[in-house]
Amino acid sequence: MNTLELRHLRTLATVRDTGSLSAAALRLHLTQSALSHQVKDLEARLGQTLFLRKSRPLRFTPAGQRLLDLADEVLPRLRATEQELMRMSGERPGRLHLSIECHSCFQWLLPTLDQYHRQWPEVEIDIPEGHQFDALPALGSEQLDLVVTADPRPLTGVHYEPLFRYQSLLAVGRNHRWAGRDWVAPQELAEETLITYPVEHARQDIFTQFLDPAGVRPHRVRTAAMAVLMMPLVASGRGVCGMPNWALAEYLEQDYVCALSLGEGGVWRTLYAATREEDGHLPWMADFLRTARETAFRVLSGIRPASA
């Protein structure tokens, strides 16, 4: 058995990048116990400790830092070689026309596209207008190549690749009577002004997963096009809004608003990348999905692996 494997380098690099075993486990789609066992097994093989477990921030030993240096040298070269081999397979240059059925997704999609373009400069990337919502049928007509959605539908020839899970939360002002509570019941929103994105209710989690099943309608609905416009309204007590946990993270860190779970058990959704089934083997498509998932876990707070 080899002492050192590529998975060990990936693991140590992820532990460094995330700062903890628990966060690294989420990004690597492992349980924390499985990740801890992997690290302990490697340390037993090497006969050396790789990092100080009780240090904050986490600190690597000289042996651990040497392996990190190796990871920084080997892993980028490995990925570049994989991409070069994909190109040598003879596939035609790719086209990636995509649509996002999610107002908040640009927070992680833009860095995804930036990194992907550096890796695959020959792929034509575009986000055509007019397909932001109900875009899935456009996959079949080849107007689009990929749709980011939380609402998969059974369509012939369409494959849904899970990216990550996220929690839908309710944002309220710091002086709201619910501030400091853990969760809110659907019926309580019957007397509230709900601030939403300007899209049909059937495309919004707070309606489809929370209010509609309980037969509840908010007292009033007003719209705002972006989160940056919603938050001042919420903070000033002019309404509440439902939003993915990653989109609220920066406002919660600034103590600008409070967040409550939708129901005692919470509302968790899975975000998918929908593609045509016949495109699954295309190397540039497979690498986009990998890049999107890796970028999401690097830049977003509070998300979980789709299998969690």
UniProtKB/TrEMBL annotation:
Under Pfam families, the record lists: HTH_1, LysR_substrate
Q: Where in the cell is it found?
A: Cytoplasm
Transmembrane residue ranges: none
Pinpoint the HTH lysR-type domain residues: 4-61
One GO CC term, this protein = cytoplasm
Q: What is its main location?
A: cytoplasm
Q: Which GO terms describe its biological process?
A: methionine biosynthetic process
Check the record and name the Gene3D superfamilies matching this protein. Answer: Periplasmic binding protein-like II, Winged helix-like DNA-binding domain superfamily/Winged helix DNA-binding domain
Q: Which UniProt keywords apply?
A: Activator, Amino-acid biosynthesis, Cytoplasm, DNA-binding, Methionine biosynthesis, Repressor, Transcription, Transcription regulation
- Which terms does the record give in the GO molecular function aspect? DNA-binding transcription factor activity; transcription cis-regulatory region binding
InterPro entries the record matches: LysR_HTH_N, LysR_subst-bd, MetR_PBP2, WH-like_DNA-bd_sf, WH_DNA-bd_sf
What the record says about family reads: Belongs to the LysR transcriptional regulatory family.
- Name the UniProt record assigns to this protein: HTH-type transcriptional regulator MetR
